[in-house]
Design brief:
The complex is a heterotrimer. Chain B is mainly beta. Chain B has helices at residues 13-17, 28-39; strands spanning 44-45, 50-52, 56-57, 63-68, 74-79, 86-92, 100-105, 111-118, 124-133. By secondary structure, chain C is an alpha+beta fold. The chains are: A mainly beta, B mainly beta, C alpha+beta. Chains A and B meet through strand 3, strand 5 and strand 6 of A and strand 6 and strand 7 of B.
Chain lengths: 109, 140, 287
């Protein structure tokens, strides 16, 4: 597992039914591209977050396939439509099999 | 306000600082192959898709990019001048509030960034923008 | 923005002439920095008196960055450095060393240390030397916690420094340069104006005589340190003040000083004092 992987998400706490809310996510991860060499000239093996998903109350918002060209500490901004109070689930998939998760609740009036 | 944009020429420093890794670059065939893998070779049109990228990125390691194609099922993002052109594919689910997303990407030098959207009716939209990448003067 | 001393000749540097490439980066030097919509920073102000005859105005490095880079620092979520502030909070609350203390044991919250960043480096009476914030943290780590000193630019140290900067954001840099610190400060000033390397350039060549100009395609700032540690797009991590000093000296192809060396401690005090009047804005985003 890559060291010190910390996810961060930002979702509004409240919204009205039918609102489109903006969501931002960031996760600390080196996103080692597999195209760099270390001091001894050896290729540093690829190690990236290769997929990110966000679901709201079990329904998919976005599902991103990620390649090594996404920057270190991958950042995504997108939006979701919310019709009811519920929970966003965020999942990041690491090349090494690790899965990182975070959640955020929203109250819909 | 317009700055004094005079060049501070006259240093060998730039050269000293420019020892960056210059990886191989995708060929036109690689780029076509990546596009075809997504479109199946279908034609693309350019209305209804927006790609926002800086004209000049201050550093190629972290370039903010935004794509937007209302109604799209998926948008693929490609960097034609990277070692491998694929960057990301955004698949939008039923709870998406818009078929739009922003991220930060790596660009190995000046090149075209390409976004292609797949619409529910099976058509494809394409937007493209050239991004210049500056070479810094101070390694640090 | 008025550029007063732009017409200075580059002396020995001109002899090394190489062509630069013209850049049209869109950088708004007149922009104001308000973080999260409510935290107002001072990114330009009159230079402190000790810079009379050198600079009229001082500017945060933020003002020289491109629109996109500027934007990343205007919101704590968009600023990737804040990830490391969170890691800094974790370290702050974690016990280490033989005494079983965490930073929080004695300081309770990082906010209790919010006045610190703006006044460091500063003279330490007991030790009889100028202390940077790094040294002060290690004093607590080794003497009050019974732990091994953290490496000068180690991840834990830089994360703690990012935390202390973040709680100090908006406080006005005000390092003392007289009294017992004077001698160290003068040593730092000496280093700042010394030409190093085969390119014979001093810090001042770039950051005093040529700020606002482009070196290759890089928009030169005044080399202020009010934004440290900085998250650089280039290496996508936090960078310490001394590692930046090293990079700048290395680029003039000179032998550099070591991080934590007396030379760099003096230089840090001096460079910090050139920013007296700007606000603490670390951890910032730079190219």
């Amino acid at each position: 597992m890559a060291d010190n992987v910390t996810p961060r998400v930002r979702v509004p706490r409240e919204a009205s039914a039918g609102d489109v809310v903006s969501i931002r996510t960031l996760i600390s991860h080196p996103m080692e591209s597999g195209q760099r060499r270390d001091g001894d000239g050896n290729v540093i093996p690829r190690s990236i977050i290769n997929r990110f998903t966000c679901d709201f109350n079990g329904e998919n918002v976005i599902d991103v396939t990620i390649e090594p060209a996404v920057s270190t500490n991958p950042y995504f901004q997108f939006s979701a439509v919310v019709n009811e109070t519920g929970t966003f689930n965020f999942t990041w998939y690491d090349d090494d099999g690790s899965v990182y998760e975070d959640t955020a609740d929203i109250t819909v009036a | 306000m317009e700055m004094n944009r005079r060049q501070f020429v006259g240093t060998g420093v730039g050269a000293a600082a420019a020892i960056t890794l210059l990886p191989s670059v995708a060929t036109a065939q690689d780029v076509d192959a990546a596009i075809n893998a997504f479109t199946g070779g279908a034609d693309t049109s350019s209305d209804g898709i927006t790609l926002i990228a800086p004209e000049i990125a201050e550093n190629g390691n972290t370039v903010p990019i935004e794509v937007d194609a209302p109604g799209a099922e998926a948008i693929i993002l490609l960097a034609a001048g990277n070692p491998s052109p694929d960057v990301a594919t955004f698949n939008f689910g039923p709870a998406a509030g818009a078929q739009a997303a922003s991220t930060r990407i790596r660009l190995a030098g000046e090149q075209d960034v390409i976004a292609i959207a797949r619409m529910p009716d099976g058509t494809f939209l394409r937007a493209q923008q050239e991004v210049k990448v500056t070479i810094g003067g101070c390694g640090g | 923005m008025k550029k007063m001393q732009k017409a200075l000749a580059l002396g020995s540097v001109a002899a090394m002439a190489l062509m630069g490439t013209a850049a049209t980066l869109s950088a708004d030097e007149d922009a104001d920095l308000i973080i999260n919509g409510d935290m107002e920073m001072i990114v330009r102000t009159e230079a402190p008196d000790h810079l009379d005859g050198h600079l009229n105005m001082i500017y945060s490095g933020w003002t020289f960055r491109s629109d996109e880079t500027q934007a990343m620092q205007m919101d704590d979520f968009d600023n990737p450095a804040m990830l490391f502030v969170e890691q800094g909070i974790e370290i702050f609350n974690t016990a280490m060393g033989t005494e079983g203390n965490s930073c929080a044991t004695c300081h309770e919250t990082p906010e209790n240390l919010s006045e610190v960043r703006a006044v460091y480096p500063q003279w330490d009476e007991e030790r009889g030397e100028v202390q940077t914030i790094t040294m002060q943290i290690n004093e607590c780590v080794t003497e009050r916690m019974g732990a091994e000193a953290l490496g000068w630019s180690s991840r834990d140290m830089v994360n703690l420094e990012a935390l202390l900067a973040s709680v100090g954001r908006g406080t006005v840099v005000n390092v003392a340069i007289d009294g017992p610190a004077r001698e160290t400060w003068e040593m730092g000033r000496e280093i700042y104006y010394t030409e190093y390397g085969i390119l014979e350039m001093s810090c001042a060549t770039c950051h005093e005589q040529n700020y606002g100009n482009y070196i290759r395609a890089d928009h030169l700032s005044q080399g202020q340190i009010n934004g440290f540690p900085t998250y650089r797009l280039k290496n996508a991590r936090l960078n310490s003040t001394h590692s930046r000093f090293r990079g700048c000296i290395r680029d003039t192809r000179a032998e550099t000083f070591a991080e934590g060396s007396p030379e760099f401690i003096a230089l840090e005090l001096y460079v910090a004092s050139r920013g007296n009047g700007l606000t603490v804005e670390g951890p910032s985003v730079r190219n």
